Amino acid sequence: MNFLRYLLFPFSVLYGCIMSVRNFLYRTNVFQSRSYPISIISVGNLNTGGTGKSPMIELLVKTLKDKHQIATLSRGYKRTTEGFLEVQPYHLSSEVGDEPLQFKINFPEITVAVDANRQRGISELLKKHPQLDLILLDDAFQHRKVKPNLSILLTTYGDLYTKDFMLPTGNLREFQTGASRADVIIVTKCPGNLAVEEQSRIKKQLKPGVTQKLLFSTILYSEFVKNATEHEKLAGFDDFTLVTGIANPKPLVNHLKSLDKNFEHIQFADHHEFSEADLKMLQKKPKLLTTQKDYVRLKSKLESGKLFYIPIETQILNEPGFLEKYLEDRLF
């Protein structure tokens, strides 16, 4: 597979050049980016998948929801519906996408919507909810038709964009120079004890601009596992099957191993569509643990008493109080 990717190197160069021309046309206003009379934050990445966008969106919601009227807008990846749709807790993940449904379940008080056309989605949100003063665009760093007030770029500690190359040889959606559009760069999924010296090393590698802020974040795993009706301590939860359909399950696997958990791991691709054969196989397992993103897709298809998920959250390591103050000063 890696050898095949290298054979496709000329296509990577071609794709990168196309994206560079596209960005140039937006930068010179040949292609127009639309602004809106409301604060908009774009969260995205240069790499495909697995950088922790959903936990970062949830961190932003937690940080700002008590003072502001917030909506999230996603495309609703792999959903069966089309156009603009406001997400409700009763929706199926197949109708709205797993991540938007997760946002609505975790924060029922905010507005959550999906629309692949971001301009239309924003217009619909403003029409239906004129009280909104902030919209969070999920996975929108390359969506240049909307001009955000603030762009947050995520890159994973174990897979920095400076170590990657363009699709299809690598996993970059555009050349590394695209990072210059970001106001904030956040290195995600860092070890909780990331040393200052290591932070400095990464900063030298990423080379953020003078006006760009570089932050480091880590994932915090709950001490409990849960489902719709049950709540158990992770310490006493053992002899289970871990089921993942996310881009990078390694941090979760490592966390469970660090706790000396006894489990088998069944790994599917990111946003995997569980087949009848998959479900029959999983149904035979006595106890299942998964991520919340996978849980919202599996909960209606498996016996509820055997399926649990482990909640997670993102924590900023280097300047814990910086993000809230920065966002308030920049946007409101």
From TrEMBL:
The gene is lpxK. Its EC number is 2.7.1.130. Keywords: ATP-binding, Kinase, Lipid A biosynthesis, Lipid biosynthesis, Lipid metabolism, Nucleotide-binding, Transferase. This is Tetraacyldisaccharide 4'-kinase. PANTHER family: TETRAACYLDISACCHARIDE 4'-KINASE, TETRAACYLDISACCHARIDE 4'-KINASE, MITOCHONDRIAL-RELATED. Pathway: Glycolipid biosynthesis; lipid IV(A) biosynthesis; lipid IV(A) from (3R)-3-hydroxytetradecanoyl-[acyl-carrier-protein] and UDP-N-acetyl-alpha-D-glucosamine: step 6/6. It is an enzyme of class 2 (transferase). Transmembrane segments: none annotated. Transfers the gamma-phosphate of ATP to the 4'-position of a tetraacyldisaccharide 1-phosphate intermediate (termed DS-1-P) to form tetraacyldisaccharide 1,4'-bis-phosphate (lipid IVA). One of its GO terms (molecular function) is ATP binding. SUPFAM superfamilies: P-loop containing nucleoside triphosphate hydrolases. It catalyses: a lipid A disaccharide + ATP = a lipid IVA + ADP + H(+). Belongs to the LpxK family. GO terms for biological process: lipid A biosynthetic process; lipopolysaccharide core region biosynthetic process. One of its GO terms (cellular component) is plasma membrane.
